[in-house]
Fold each of these.
Amino acid sequence: MNQAHRLFDEAVAAVMRTPWRPELIIEEIPAPQRIAPQSAAIAADVEVNDSELGNGRLVLLHDPAGNPAWDGEFRCVTYARAEVDAEMITDPLLAEVGWSWLIDALDRHQAEYTAPSGTVTAVASQSFGSMEDDPQRAEIEIRASWTPVVTTGDDMIAHAHAWQDLLCLVSGLPMLPDGVVPMPLNRSASRRR
């Protein structure tokens, strides 16, 4: 195995052994195959008292030859979605705040990165006709990507923690206080879909 493939395997292993907050149900999912020579992906549901508050996924892409669009050899791609209060949708700052959740989380965990990009979408849905009794729904969705600076596989732990913070913030959960670390879960104890 060459050094580039070993670094990707170490990065994936670091993400998989990341200690997650108990509200996150994490599972490995099939990764896209045509975007990069190597890829891995996880999905998460954010649940409290058996109620799903949000969900998302994180994809790690690797191209040992580098990718000019990424500004590096690795790329993190994420999707995070949650229902929010209908009043939040009308807030003109919601998109900027949603984007700041990602950037602040990366900075908080000292996750080195370059070339961040993405979109924040807020949508309100009102049902009509035979569905008029359905409640009004409001959702926020963040689709983003960034290039993690990965010199050792363990560098990805900070990025995994930042992604966890993003999911929790989108889902309305408070940040863990400084110094509080979630307990690692036994992989066999985590639920599968």
Amino acid sequence: MNTLRNLRSFVAVARSGSLAVAADRIALTAAAVSLQLRALEAEFRRELFLRGGRNLVLNDAGRELLPWAERLVALHDEMRSITSQRAASAGTPIVGTYRVGSIVSAVAPLSRVVVGLKREHPQLEVTLSVARSIDMAAACASGALDAAVLVRGDARPARGLAWTPLYSEALVLAAHAGVRGRDALRQLAEHPFLRFERQQRTGALVQRALRQHRVKVQEFLELNSIEAIVELVRQRVGVTLLPQLAHARWDEDPALRLLSLPGPALQREIGLLQRRDRAAVPAQAIIAALRP
């Protein structure tokens, strides 16, 4: 099993080119990953990386080993998945580890699912982490995560991954309750604009809406937290354009005023991205809990 763990670390570093990134994806420290690589090189009696620069690059021996290592890791994951599914269908407890990621807005309901899974399957270790959608999609593809609740992107899921839609959230203008007028486009143009980070999928959707409506906003702040932006709106700092979170109650907040954009509303789709080779029971529980 030590060799398999070392191979898993080797694959993670080979794909990312970085000890730190690989360690984060497989939930280890960079020092532990480095030791596992050294152990693997000692076992095969050859170095696998070109060292000296900031990034780790495979040498000829490493490139030769990589497809075999990926195949062995994938076979092991498939074996664990089949074993877990058969155990679940037989009514026996599921064992092993299940790693799920989430965007911030879905953490609360997903946490309740995790608690339920741990209660129902005490021998199943479920870990929950929070990250950006683009990072979690890459982690699912690399095997660092088994599933993630995230914002759907434009590209198709990578090979070996499955996408299940959960719910959609329409873009709305959020302003302080004291702001007058019902023209959302005018409010966007006349007040300081609080923008969600455009490198993220939600930020790209916001930018698409602004371009579609040809609105020139007064750029003021760009943040990567929806709740932080909404709190600034409550404090009269400016207005924003964000998806109306399914698990928030902004429409009941006396400090907020929500306005719809003209025409069909642009929406972000939230769904579950999961590896096909992992246990089905945890994913089924997530889907059942988060779908309306």
Amino acid sequence: MSVSRRSVLAAASIAFSGAVGVLFTGGRAAPAGRGPGYGPLVADPRGLLDLPAGFAYTVLSRAGDPLRSGEGTVPGNCDGMAAFAADPASGAGVRLVRNHENKPAATLRVPPVAGLTYDPAALGGCTLLELAPDGRVTAERVALAGTAVNCAGGRTPWNTWLSCEETEDRAGTSGYTRDHGYVFEVDPADPHRSGAVPLTAMGRFAHEAVAVDPYTGIVYETEDAFVRPFGLFYRFLPVRPLGGPGSLRAGGVLQALRVPGVPDLSVVDEPGAEFPAEWVPVPDPAAAGTPIRFQDFGAGGITHAQKLEGCYWGDGGVHFVSSYARSGEGSAADHHGQVWFHDPRRSKVRLDVLFGPATDIALPGDCPDNICLAPDGGLMVCEDGGGAQYVFGVTRAGEVYPVARNAEDIGRPGAPEWGEFAGVTFSPDGRTMYVNAYAPGTTFAVTGPWR
């Protein structure tokens, strides 16, 4: 992905220029103790992951290595992920559920396993890592197979993972035997209990991520559509809200966001700008004849956004990301990334973070993607752009700071050419950050003085 860089980020009406540039460039980082975050990143002598002083990483899993279960090899294209307590009563141990965004040409598929496979012709799915209290990997196995392009997802209040297919391919396309474009529930305590059942009422479209309101059970969903008309932001009203594992199979009502007078979110360029949120029923959630984003939503139309990506519940609402917008590709305006917030109690949406115009190719931060809540109450954001990739934090005050950087394009002979960061998540006790490098597929555990 070739995209330009920039040195200005704005959040909550606060603009950062030189300060952000200093924080994010390799040899000119701010002195420790100044500014937000944990100080400058220190170059990793192994050429894998640069972290602030006092932090360390462990490689938990690599694509191509044998799965500890003996079911095959670790699949590639590691993407969305969530961490769960292995023993909720004591909090001991962690279970990691990890997506694999495998398309039809993928070389390291998720091995098909009886009882966990939806479509044997599809190569994506999820794997499950079990970690001992000391962080050692004690088990690694398939949790969902036979799904396609499993991008991101989201955790539920009842401690399961919702894995999203980022595709609209139907049976007969790419050799598939079943329709795709669904959400699947994965139970990390017992994947065979959840099986491989598509949650069809939640819509058939190019899903990216989901977030569940822990008070009402409403599920919010983002759509990452690559061509016009771009994706929508949805909410799903379950028949059995907060009903526990398997309850979403009972169905519900799918609606899409309409911001009156704003058909394209890319035109909003003022952080702090707030708008009323309306919810319109989706005419045909199954997209039997027409993809949802092409359907007729009646008078007033519907609101679209290019590259709707990460989605996460926190601060009493839903944070969701538009990774970028390009007028040359059909957006109404250009930006290098937006983070929005939907307040369901007030029925409002607000632009919280805007990634500003390109001025310096050495700076990171274009194309925000996966997000999660940080232990301090701010956000962690994965970058999906060109060159060296970052995980960076955004404080509750809107300040931005670096957390991790891969080694691509920073002059280290022999360093792997990493893809994007993805799947950032924290252990239940907040002491370990887990994150994936998309390619070559690698899962890291990062420990240190998290606040």
Amino acid sequence: MSEPALQAVNLTRAYGAVRAVDGVSFALARGGSLGIVGESGSGKTTTARIVVGLEQADSGEVVVDGRRRPTAVRGRAGRLARAREVQMAFQDPYLSLDPRTSVESVLRLHFPDRNPAPRVRELLGHVGLPARAADARPGQLSGGQRQRVAIARALAVEPAVLVLDEAVAALDVSVQAQILNLLADIREQTRVSYLFITHDLGVVRCVTDDVIVMRHGRVIEAGATADVLTAPQRPYTRLLLDSVPHPGWDPEQIAAARRAL
């Protein structure tokens, strides 16, 4: 078997007496798609921030392409090398882009030493935007278009891993479907590996190969997405599935089950 694109090895992170991440380990296959699910406070976003480098783990390590990811780097070359390992697309496309800066300026920051125009056009094409979008500012774009620009920015340095933290949660349902289809196409074309952070089990079912379920900072269930969502082994995973509204759904029963856990 080939080396995983990403490995998290026994990550821990505490804030005072609260262990936000408590011994979390997982592996993301090269060209694969892994979901991390759980309710607010489960530790999934903190785990993602450790992987990207926005948070520092108290212990454990992150390994990308077989190399331990350093906690700090110096110099432009080191920062660029680190950026090529892991990039992140955030939840809110309205806040993740500078409203004063054109799309071309956002993307060309990654290519200061050469003519960026061909690469900018290529990136826009990857995310399904026309070349004329390069001249637009974020305020002139729809939410879906802004998220496409954010994804193009993340892909600009050709990362091994793209972390998507609730990346479609702020979008309308129809636009969510477009972005998810786009991400599937990009993965097929580029073999980038995806780490999805989400509470939406519908998203997980559509776009991930494997999934881990987190609660109180720990991984409580893991496996192939189809297996975990079809035949969950842990009561908490079953509760997450039962909490999704469906015919015959009883919110009082769900609340009682939650209290019992």
